[in-house]
């Protein structure tokens, strides 16, 4: 069956020492918790990755991920980081397609398809984000948007490659706003995503795909969201910056 995952996305927060201190607390707190969460992933800025991987050694449950990788294997791309470089420090995951990358850095589905290929070729697991804006939801085109983000971004993969992905549904209107999708709204979209995966591949691929919810997820609403049939965990922004809140979300799977 699919894995239950809680992932933190620190975004562009925390200096080096702050990140190490927070991560050490999370590793310690998560260690002893009885929870249905099978894997805890922390997606940090690049500067932390190597040290976090070292700190995570010995923790069966905690993995480390990056928040982006360039679509080229290597080359003259000043300021960029490749998937191979991320892999070389021992990270396991890379977030791709986050709405902040789509919005502020112009990443579209075609570019994200290339990034997905390079990330997979380097034996890293993409956490592939999709989700509609408020205007798209109000215009009632959110299902079309989500379907095209899914199919144009990762629909070119064969079933074996697709099965390495984690999908994250993050409605843009819920990110950092304090407005969470209701559990009914989130479950509706998660079930839709799973149905689309089944249509593209088959039911066994769909049933095995972890689909995370992200957007103002916090210790108060996590249990209700995670109890939904098609919600397999969370991608947590703001609340991942506080060890107690993040660990309480990890504990919300019971
Ligand atoms: O964007 C997110 C995670 O990737 C969600 O952010 P918040 O949890 O801060 O709303």
TrEMBL record:
Q: In which pathway does it act?
A: Carbohydrate biosynthesis; gluconeogenesis; Carbohydrate degradation; glycolysis; D-glyceraldehyde 3-phosphate from glycerone phosphate: step 1/1
Task: List the catalytic activities from the record.
Answer: D-glyceraldehyde 3-phosphate = dihydroxyacetone phosphate
| Coiled-coil residue spans | none
UniProt signal peptide: none
Q: Does the keyword Isomerase apply?
A: yes
Enzyme Commission (EC) number: 5.3.1.1
The active site of this protein is located at 98, 170
- Residues annotated as binding substrate are 9-11, 176, 216, 237-238
Do you know which NCBIfam families this protein is assigned to?
tim
This molecule's function is given as: Involved in the gluconeogenesis. Catalyzes stereospecifically the conversion of dihydroxyacetone phosphate (DHAP) to D-glyceraldehyde-3-phosphate (G3P).
Its recorded name reads Triosephosphate isomerase
């Amino acid at each position: 069956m699919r894995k239950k995952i809680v992932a933190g996305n620190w975004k562009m927060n925390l200096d080096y020492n702050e990140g190490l201190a927070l991560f050490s607390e999370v590793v310690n707190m998560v260690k002893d918790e009885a929870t249905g969460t099978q894997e805890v992933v922390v997606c940090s800025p690049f500067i932390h990755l190597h040290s976090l991987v070292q700190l995570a050694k010995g923790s069966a449950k905690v993995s480390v991920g990056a928040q982006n990788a360039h679509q080229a294997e290597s080359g003259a791309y000043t300021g960029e980081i490749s998937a191979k470089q991320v892999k070389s420090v021992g990270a396991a995951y890379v977030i791709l397609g986050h709405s902040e990358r789509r919005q502020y850095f112009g990443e579209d589905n075609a570019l994200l398809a290339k990034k997905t290929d390079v990330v997979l070729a380097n034996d890293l697991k993409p956490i592939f984000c999709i989700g509609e804006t408020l205007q798209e939801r109000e215009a009632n085109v959110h299902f079309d948007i989500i379907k095209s983000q899914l199919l144009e971004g990762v629909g070119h993969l064969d079933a074996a490659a697709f099965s390495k992905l984690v999908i994250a549904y993050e409605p843009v209107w819920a990110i950092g706003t304090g407005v969470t999708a209701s559990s009914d709204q989130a479950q509706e979209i998660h079930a839709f995503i799973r149905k689309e995966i089944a249509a593209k591949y088959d039911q066994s691929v769909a049933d095995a795909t972890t689909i995370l919810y992200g957007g103002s997820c916090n210790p108060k609403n996590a249990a209700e969201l995670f109890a939904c049939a098609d919600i397999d965990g969370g991608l947590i922004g703001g609340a991942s910056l506080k060890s107690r809140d993040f660990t309480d979300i990890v504990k919300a799977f019971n």
